[in-house]
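In response to reviewer comment 3 from the previous cycle, which asked for concrete evidence that the modeling workflow produces usable outputs, we include below a single protein chain processed end to end. The sequence was submitted unchanged, and the resulting structure tokens are shown without manual editing.
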Amino acid sequence: MFLIVYVLAFVLLVCCWIWGDLEFRPKLIVTAVYLASWLLIFLSPWAVIAVQALFCVVVGYMTFGSDWGR
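The workflow returned the following structure tokens.
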């Protein structure tokens, strides 16, 4: 059921790299944050879901602008 959050986070990361109007450094930072979020699996699976849901909101806005989520 929560697999959609994991998939959406990965898809948005790929979209950020392909279509995002960002420079190289912010893309690397976003990728590092995505990879670091998986380290929370040792703490709690719910923590990973919460962080990646927030990640989806931020990266979606960074990639698609203010029209994200409408």
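Residues 33 and 45 are 16 Å apart (CA to CA). We consider this sufficient to address the reviewer's concern, and the full set will be provided in the supplementary archive.
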